[in-house]
Amino acid sequence: MVHSLRAKTACVGLGMAGMGEAPGKNAMDLMVEATYLAAKDAGISVQDIDGIFSATAVHSMPAMSLAEHIGVQPKFSSSSNIGGSSFMAHALNAAMALEAGIINVALIAYGSNQRTAGGFKTVSEPLPYEAVYKPRVPLTAYALTANRYMHEFGASREDLAEVAVAARQWANLNPQAFMRGPLSKEDVLGARMISTPFTKLDCCLVTDGGAAIIMTRADRAKDGPRTPIYLMGAAMEHHHRMISEMPDLMQTSAKQSSQRALDMAGLSVNQMDSYQLYDAFTINTMLFLEDIGLCKKGEAKDFIKDGRIAPGGDVPVNTNGGGLSCVHPGMYGMFVMIEAIRQIRAGAGDDEGKREPGGWLKEAKLCLAHGNGGVLSSQATAIWGHPDTV
Amino acid sequence: MTTNFEGAGPEARFEAYLEDGKFMLQRSKTDGSYVFYPRVINPQNGEADLEWVEASGEGEVYATTATSRRPEQGGDYNIALVTLKEGPRLMARIVGIDPHDVKIGMAVTADIQEVEGTRAVVFQPAKGA
Lengths: 390, 129
Fold this sequence. Notes:
heterodimer, A: alpha/beta, B: mainly beta, CATH 2.40.50, 2 domains, five-stranded antiparallel sheet, three-stranded antiparallel sheet, 8 strands, 8% helix
């Protein structure tokens, strides 16, 4: 049965600001810049926005702060924060509020200046029963997971490095990516060890960046200047807050969130033209390839061999260069979603961004954006589609 | 309906036990299964059926990482997830061994020590392991 939210709403505008380094700007500046650009991209005024969804690493009530900055009194807002996957969850929330007629124009926005502000920041409270051991949050949790993954499935540090190399190859096709240039597996293995088995190059960038999208109901979306990109399905799930409470480090809720998002869309995972998988660390991509159903548990190390997820491979993954090589301003989910949307726009000839040959996929029509939050805690998946797929 | 909500909450009680040199877990009065970290109600069945019992202290390393730190700040240190014999898992440090030598599956025994100034449960390689 077709879900009542399938393709009922669409992204009609998007904006990005200060990707990489944005000296002199604070997190709100970047979020407002991106919001303004997204509204203009959609052919509307920011003052047409009547629903605001935002989560950041530095604001306790970002939707309220953002509304104040842009002079909007929203009829509905949510600052719900489930970490880096908040924005896919916001897309689901926005679709619900739009379809219910509570709002007409939804904004989802993020901003962070953590690179120029001096490094990773979080509004998170210290986690009880863990903080005493001085884990590096969230790094330690992912390092523990990678260690367990290598033990259970016989994966190696070289396998993890393969993920970082593929991401860099995509970044090399994207002038907007922050880290570009040649990268070999040996470079990854030989970089400074941060927390075994991760070197610095197994870990995401620390950049600045703002990003925003505008969503409206499908009836209205057709009237805008851009190709509307429809939200075909979305779902979220979380099952722990602290890594010590994750029942099985090898199994994330991405399995449930992706399956329910695909069910809503009436599609199967193999029908996607690209897979944008939140890669805060190299292990993430491996786990999510398995959990969304592209390969069996423990087989990602074989699945990614021979450049399969790299440019030219048959499974395009993290085509902007990912959190590992493109951009990662604390919470990366907005950029994951925007890359999924932009690939479809570009396939329709409707994205001005320049990429090297192969950086834009050929006529991508369905893209999966998967978000991860906390310490593999919250998982949220959004599937975006070209008008032809509706 | 009976509850055990009187007096200090579970975090305060756990810390008070720790001060007394005891590593305590909670156990369900309904089915005898164990819970850690300490809770107000049992997350396995939704009931207020938890009682305190002393942990056996026996466990096994489930995952481990050696966190890099400059020598002048104390050098690399271990962080591990340990699965207790009773079932629950917790974060801890494995001490008394090079942080890089801790292996998954290693049998470990609980101890209570100062970790950078705070009393906490840590684990050491089990004797004979």
